[in-house]
């Protein structure tokens, strides 16, 4: 069962399971683990990752938008799914029908949800988001109790939880994150003093690893689920395994003469006779154009530099010194023999963060899922094969 195209992202599901278990090992037994699988599980394949994470110890799933939740429900996933982002009020009935959990932070959305649930004679769950310093979604701390009590008073609406999101938990200086946690606790205490016992959560991967006091009733694990770290120093806190690697094949290998220009804009010229390999991956695959003239890859375990600009569907590497030929494998992300191109390296070349690197890998790149060293499924533009 091979994908038709040789440019593929390998997703090792065993590593996802390991990462869930490793994180479960550092959080209290009573603390729930939400697997954050928004953005197609940070590019890793939402359905496959969600199923695996649930079987490995996660009890809930987090997505950003309704469509992502629908995709998971259509795949038969029955676990609680939280929509952490905005849901259009006109979509409230879908949220209710699919038994999804929504984020509550303004009157309009809770009224829409309560109205839809009442019409359908069903309950809908929400978690109230408090903005303790992210400046994004969420009620202001001073409005938290009033808003939560409004939501609690609405028919068919069940306020199950209360949460906040940390802006700087990946920073070396954790004082602002600690300040957010304190502000969140103060809101929770005011709610509790008025008799409201809710599921409390604030920790993302960085806080799970570096701020153990943030674990509370649930943690929301995104980046770490995929084996990536929010900051390099966190590697010593728990051992995670990266789940994604990216490989392709050389589609053309040829010698070029001294000063031969390569690619759009002629931004690179061969210095002497060079062996140049073309590779069928480009920015439409999510292999960013920002890698032009700075990226590296592995051919036969050796580092080779990307030369010229990344095109939409192809790019070129200088493979001089290697006995490279058309059809040979090239590793753009991941391990080959003794060396490894890490997501963090690619992110640095692109001038971005590791999150963006895997999220960008587009659907044109087939995902090949591995379990116990065997391919357990493939998802390509042409659909899923198991
Ligand atoms: C509300 C919320 N919680 C949790 C996460 C997961 O964060 P991370 O990937 O840093 O673990 C995100 C991701 O951005 C988020 O938006």
Summary?
With 386 residues, the chain is of the alpha/beta class.
Description:
The mean pLDDT is 97. Helix 10 crosses helix 11. This protein is 28% helix and 27% strand. Strands 1, 10, 11, 14, 15, 16, 17, 18, 19, 20, 21 and 22 form a twelve-stranded mixed sheet that branches. It has an eight-stranded parallel sheet with strand order 4-3-2-9-8-7-6-5. With 386 residues, it is α/β, with parallel strands linked by helices. It has eleven helices and 22 strands. A hairpin with a 2-residue loop joins strand 18 and strand 19. The protein has two domains: 213 residues, Alanine racemase (TIM Barrel, Alpha-Beta Barrel), CATH 3.20.20; 109 residues, Lyase, Ornithine Decarboxylase, Chain A, domain 1 (Beta Barrel). Pyridoxal-5'-phosphate binds next to helix 9 and strand 9.
């Amino acid at each position: 069962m091979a994908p038709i195209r040789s440019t593929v992202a390998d997703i090792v599901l065993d590593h996802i399971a390991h990462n869930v278990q490793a994180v479960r090992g550092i959080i209290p037994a009573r603390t729930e683990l939400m697997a954050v699988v928004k953005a197609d599980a940070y590019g890793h394949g939402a359905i496959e990752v969600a199923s695996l994470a649930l079987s490995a110890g996660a009890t809930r799933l987090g997505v950003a938008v309704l469509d992502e939740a629908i995709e998971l429900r259509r795949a038969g996933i029955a676990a609680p799914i939280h929509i952490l982002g905005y849901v259009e009020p006109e979509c409230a009935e879908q949220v209710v029908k699919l038994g999804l959990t929504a984020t509550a932070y303004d009157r309009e959305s809770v009224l829409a949800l309560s109205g839809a649930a009442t019409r359908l004679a069903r309950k809908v769950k929400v978690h109230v988001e408090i903005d303790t310093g992210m400046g994004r979604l969420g009620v202001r701390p001073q409005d938290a109790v009033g808003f939560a009590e409004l939501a609690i008073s609405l028919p068919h609406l069940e306020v199950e939880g209360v949460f906040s999101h940390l802006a700087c938990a990946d920073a070396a200086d954790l004082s602002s994150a600690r300040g957010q946690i304190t502000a969140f606790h103060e809101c929770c205490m005011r709610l509790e003093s008025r008799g409201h016992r809710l599921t409390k959560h604030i920790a993302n991967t960085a806080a799970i690893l570096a701020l153990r006091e943030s674990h509370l009733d649930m943690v929301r694990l995104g980046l770490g689920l995929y084996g990536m770290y929010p900051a390099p120093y966190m590697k010593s806190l728990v051992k995670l395994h990266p789940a994604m690697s990216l490989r392709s094949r050389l589609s053309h290998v040829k010698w070029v003469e001294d000063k031969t220009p390569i690619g759009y804009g002629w931004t690179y010229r061969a210095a002497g006779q060079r062996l140049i390999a073309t590779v069928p991956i480009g920015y439409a695959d999510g292999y960013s154009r920002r890698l032009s003239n700075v990226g590296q890859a592995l051919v036969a375990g050796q580092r080779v530099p990307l030369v010229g600009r990344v095109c939409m569907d192809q790019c070129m590497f200088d493979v001089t010194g290697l006995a490279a030929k058309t059809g040979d494998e090239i590793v753009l992300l991941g391990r080959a023999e003794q060396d490894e191109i890490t997501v963090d390296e690619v992110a640095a070349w692109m001038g971005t963060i590791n999150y963006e690197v895997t999220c960008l890998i587009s659907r044109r790149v087939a995902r090949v899922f591995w379990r116990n060293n065997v391919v357990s499924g493939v998802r390509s533009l042409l659909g899923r094969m198991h």
